[in-house]
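User: Just a sanity check before I run the rest of the batch. Below are the structure tokens for the first item. I only need the designed sequence back.
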């Protein structure tokens, strides 16, 4: 309890020292910047593709086709910006990108349908109320469950290959929201059953006693037996990849939202404790790319991990009380203040049009290191929206 008190006190002092800008003003400033940046991002992205990243050293933008797992984040970010600014041009750009993305509702090549279709079409349906978007969401859920393996009670993330036989990655928790939402909005109840089976199996097999998570658990999908536990994007098999911890926190918080089952809330709170009390967490609460990364503090940060964590903590605060509620809210606020500073927010007209700098995609794969990423912007805008709606 003493450690919790001192952590809470230190966060409070860091977040509120020196007469800092009111969060209402900060949120307004950042959404206005986001609108301008995304006008530039639209110009830098071919009309039949989605933005992926920007390389500051070469000043080159990179885009992706719509089957890339991040394809839903750009229209989703545009929709969050529109929700705040009511700018019609921003909405029109989102609609244009939804048109080219819609065909992916039939995609079954991996588990990322939630990222691709719910962050995009789910937000479009929520914000505009246009019933045209719902069948796309429903179809995407039907596509996602084709990857469910009943003998193992999991949704297989990637296809079998030389490295992994039946891989399930911690990120997969995020795609369960698509299934739970569709089931709760007139869809088949089997979607909910599959989502909860996956969540419960992941609780059993993905986590260590300290509530840190492995990145990948490899299954024999015919029997459900765990073959091995490892990583693809973390520093080592036994390390705690920071974005993976963020996905886990977000996932079990979201599961509690849909089910109100106490076990998911308790699990999320334990994951939050691991993150917030981690000795590797920097003072600005923007995590290094792995909590066990070599050469800390002389290594890369991951703004995307901070954005996902902040958004998750703000929701977890809605389900918590007392000191925990204050801890989650104040920790998320500190993350958002850091991300909104010049250290992580790009100057207008720079960064290829992206909002945030200094994310790390997959360092061991030498991919997207210290660059902007679409999902960093998406969850940052979601967190700002949540703070505005729930805490102002």
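Assistant: Here's the designed sequence for the first item:
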């Amino acid at each position: 309890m003493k450690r919790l008190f001192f952590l809470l006190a230190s966060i409070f002092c860091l977040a509120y020292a020196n007469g800092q800008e009111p969060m209402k003003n900060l949120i307004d400033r950042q959404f206005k910047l986001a609108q301008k940046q995304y006008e530039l991002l639209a110009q830098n992205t071919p009309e039949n593709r989605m933005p992926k990243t920007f390389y500051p050293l070469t000043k080159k933008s990179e885009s992706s086709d719509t089957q890339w797992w991040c394809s839903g984040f750009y229209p989703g970010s545009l929709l969050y910006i529109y929700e705040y600014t009511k700018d019609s041009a921003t909405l029109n750009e989102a609609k244009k990108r939804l048109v080219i993305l819609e065909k992916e509702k039939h995609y079954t090549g991996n588990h990322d349908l939630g990222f691709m279709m719910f962050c995009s079409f789910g937000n479009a349906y929520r914000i505009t109320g246009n019933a045209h978007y719902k069948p796309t969401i429903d179809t995407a859920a039907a596509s996602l469950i084709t990857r469910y393996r009943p003998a193992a009670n999991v949704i297989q993330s990637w296809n079998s290959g030389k490295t992994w036989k039946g891989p399930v990655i911690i990120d997969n928790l995020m795609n369960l929201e698509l299934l739970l939402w569709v089931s709760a909005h007139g869809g088949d109840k089997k979607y909910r059953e599959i989502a909860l089976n996956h969540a419960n199996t992941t609780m059993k097999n993905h986590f260590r006693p300290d509530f840190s998570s492995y990145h990948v658990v490899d299954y024999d999908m015919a029997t459900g037996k765990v073959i091995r536990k490892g990583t693809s994007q973390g520093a080592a098999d036994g390390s705690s990849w920071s974005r993976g911890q963020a996905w886990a926190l977000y996932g079990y918080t979201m599961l509690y939202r849909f089910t109100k089952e106490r076990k998911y809330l308790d699990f999320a709170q334990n994951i939050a404790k691991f993150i917030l009390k981690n000795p590797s967490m920097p003072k600005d609460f923007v995590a290094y790319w792995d909590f066990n990364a070599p050469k800390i503090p002389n290594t890369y940060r991951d703004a995307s991990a901070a954005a996902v964590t902040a958004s998750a903590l703000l929701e977890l605060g809605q389900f918590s009380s007392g000191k925990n509620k204050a801890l989650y809210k104040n920790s998320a606020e500190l993350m958002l203040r850091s991300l909104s500073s010049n250290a992580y927010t790009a100057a207008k007209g720079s960064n290829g049009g992206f909002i945030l700098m200094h994310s790390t995609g997959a360092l061991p794969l030498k991919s997207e290191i210290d660059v902007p990423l679409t999902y960093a912007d998406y969850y940052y805008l979601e967190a700002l929206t949540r703070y505005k709606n729930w805490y102002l």
